[in-house]
Amino acid sequence: MTRVTLKGINKIFPGRDGHPGAHAVRDLDITLEDGTLVTLLGPSGCGKTTSLRMLAGFETPTSGQILIDGRDITHVPVNQRGIGMVFQSYALFPHMTVAENVAFGLEVLDLTRAEITRRVGEVLELMDLSALAGRAPAQLSGGQQQRVALARTVVTEPDVLLFDEPLSNLDAQLRERMRDELRLVQQRLGITSLYVTHDQSEAMAISDRVIVMRDGRVEQDGPPAEVYAHPRTAFVAGFMGRANILPARVLATEGESLRAELGGVPVTLPRPGSELAPGDAIRVVLRPEQIALSTSGPIRARIERVIFQGGFTEYQLKAGAALWTITDHRHHLHPGHRPGDEIGIDIGSAAAWILPGATD
Amino acid sequence: MTTAPIPRPFSTGLRRIAADPWLFGIFMVLSLLTVIFAILPIASVLVQALRATPTETGSGLGILIERLSAPLIWRAFGNTLLLGASSALISTLTGFLLAFAMTRTPMRGKRTVHMIALLPVISPPFVIALAMILLFGRSGLITRELLGIRGANVYGFHSLVFIQSLAFTPLAYLNIRGMLQSMDSALEDAAATLRASQWTVFRRVTLPLALPGIFSSALLVFVKSIEDFGNPLVIGGSFNTLAVEAYSQLIGYFNVPMGALLASLLLVPSLLAFMIHRHWLAKRSYVTVTGKPTAQEIRLTARRVVWPLAAFCYLYVGLVVLLYGTVVWVSLTKIPGIDWSFSTEHYVRAFTDGLAPLGNSLTIALIAAPVATLAGLVIAYIQTRRRFPGAALLRLGTLLSFAAPGTIIGIGYVSVFNTAPLLLTGTITIIIAAIVVKTVQVGIEAGTNQLRQIDPAIEEAAMILGASNGRIFRRVTAPLLRPAIFTAMAYSFTRGLTTLSAIIFLVSANWTLITVTILNQVETLRMGLAAAYSVILIVIVLSALALLQVALGRGAKQR
């Protein structure tokens, strides 16, 4: 059982030599439940890496508390926290072999030679690295280096595992494979983990929970599907994937649905939780894959560009002043459209998500 | 949403100290030593330059004006600047041509050219002066034996410039070669695809990008040239420089204030050049020198360009071989200039009567090199990885000691360490201290550059795996610093054996050194013995460098 709690964490980097300081993390409250993998997701400078480094012990919070199973570790030195970390650059020791890298953390524990050899052998076997034990890190491919970094971290059986953008140095295909491998190892060992990334698809694929951060604050915290489908702000909506975020105006509310004027056309939308009155400004979030082109669609638009992506075709359209993106995943079933075509947009009704107000 | 204002941490500095009390202790000791062995001696020379002797009346400023009106000062000052500028110009030009030919043309025999071109760096600076006298002196091999000229005058400005240019060309060559090598050849290729001719590529791309390296070399050679003591003394003749004039005022006429004033004046151009180098050039470097040469495609193959460049390189190498060959040959002749028959008697003498100074020099270099290296690397570590409060003093002290000419360090040491509780004159300690202070900056620079290339995450990874600071330094940082250790050790050891300008003031009856001995032999015209000593010294330095390479190179399989 390992439960990690960050309570009321603030981090201010003091200014130096006339440079203003930075308030990198503001009032951060998060809990990592036992055995789960939680992702901190956000653009660069949002405070996600600083939060991770505070949990690791490389930075000290300006205020707040960090607890592991109720024990306050806010001021415990890095090397006594029992936390493992996989670095963005892997940070393999370039002057040691793969086996020596993996053994490093065990040597610190003052184990016997035989015990170290046994455990290094085990973890290399687990990670499919046995054949590379005698190699230097420079002789390995990116994916192999990544596996060594993970092996070196898990061999010490840490209570908590931290990942600092571990896949960002890999090319696209390898990244997906390593992502699934990381998740598999994490689930098999059941280690409570915190994962930092700026890649939303990676975050959704790997996490039990996603925490979207912006300007040092938590913007939204929830399961990936929930955050994707029901973003609390336009920022989250845009960051979690491609979205058409369109201004609209409430016309009337009728039971479970809502009548609104969108692009000059009255449409029916699902009614949100918050109270809305006729005349209120709202924003409608529509994912490109949830809407369709239809000759009879009520919103009239002109196709500007057609981009074939293999698995789907992306259409960029102009309806009045608004730009729309629509992806067609069933493009093999019907003939495509061409730039310049006039066409209608059918927004359906179930999948639309309403954000109150004209701005966040 | 607004947050309540959060109190700022009152002192991050104190926290850094608390996190690493041991390292802070070492830092304090190093800072104190820097004040005692670098800042204090230099300050004392400046004070002495202003102090009135019993025969003088008046106060500081009046006396200073009075002293500054002596014509000998301004002649020496002018001579020094003229020499520095001339040597800088010629060395940099030669160095550039060598570096360009080595990196951009398919010239033959590059390895040989490289090895021989570096010879002047590892030999005592005045070996070339010795060779010049042997070749072109009154009874010189070329002037008298070959051409039959009687009374040829080798002494003076022209020889001095020639010797210094030759001696300092390797510095410029190495510096500029590094610059040209680390330049991404895609830049030159890109220019070529934009239809620039090879001449345009050179003029508009290569040369501008190399310019910071060229200027930096010129400044470096300038500083080295005006600091040089051995060559001007041996071959300068009536062409007096500040370093030599300071020495003769102090040792010859016991005129301490005048010696101090001349040394202080020497500090001005040195510091100026050094500051320009640090603050102005550092910001104008377009090339990040990673120490990792990128692959260079050789595109320049036109004969009319390659041949003249190659000829120039071979000529330079030939000159170096001629000069050093002469020293070797003379060391093996009975009485140079009179009896040219083969003889090993100079070596026999060097190894019997003259063994003491050789042993002394070796002892001192063997102690000074590891001390300077360790100090340099620890300072580099503190300055890049920890920011302790008060680190500026340490930085200032080490920079000052590097920029300050040996003459001012030597004179400062004599005056500061002459009385209790710092009574060190005549001991081995003072000589070692001078060498360490003069060479520690190389360890700092090499260490800093190396540390900047080491991803901090590597040390963090070791830390989060549970390693203590001590274990991290021992098992991770130190092994990764191996190339810097090599550079620092090699430099400190070589300087320790071959330096003259500072230690000439510090040697005593108990502790005389090989360089001083060679100088004495030259002055008493015992050229054979001087040559033999020089050859022995070069052999020692070469073997030490080879040993070091083997010791530190083993196991360095990384990267």
Characterise this structure.
The complex is a heterodimer of chains A (360) and B (559). Chain A is an alpha+beta fold and 360 residues long. The radius of gyration of chain A is 25 Å and the shape is globular. Helix content of chain A is 23%, strand content 35%. Chain B has a two-stranded antiparallel ribbon with strand order 1-2. Chain B is globular. In chain B, α2 crosses α14 (256-281), α7 packs across α15 and α21 (456-464) runs antiparallel to α22. With 559 residues, chain B is mainly α. Classes of the chains: A alpha+beta (360), B mainly alpha (559). Chains A and B meet through β2, β6 and α2 of A and α21 and α22 of B.
C-alpha Rg of chain A (nearest Å): 25 Å
Unreliable spans of chain B are: 1-10, 287-293, 555-559
What oligomeric state do the depicted chains represent? heterodimer
Helix content of chain A: 10-25%
What percent strand of chain A?
Answer: 35-45%
Number of strands of chain A: 20
Return residue spans of chain A where pLDDT drops below 50 for at least 5 consecutive residues. Answer: none
Strand order of the largest sheet of chain A: 6-7-8-3-9-10
Keywords:
heterodimer; A: 360 residues; alpha+beta; six-stranded mixed β-sheet; five-stranded antiparallel β-sheet; globular; B: 559 residues; mainly alpha; MetI-like fold; 25 helices
Q: What does this entry show, briefly?
A:
The complex is a heterodimer of chains A (360) and B (559). With 360 residues, chain A is α+β, with helices and mostly antiparallel strands. Chain A is 23% helix and 35% strand.
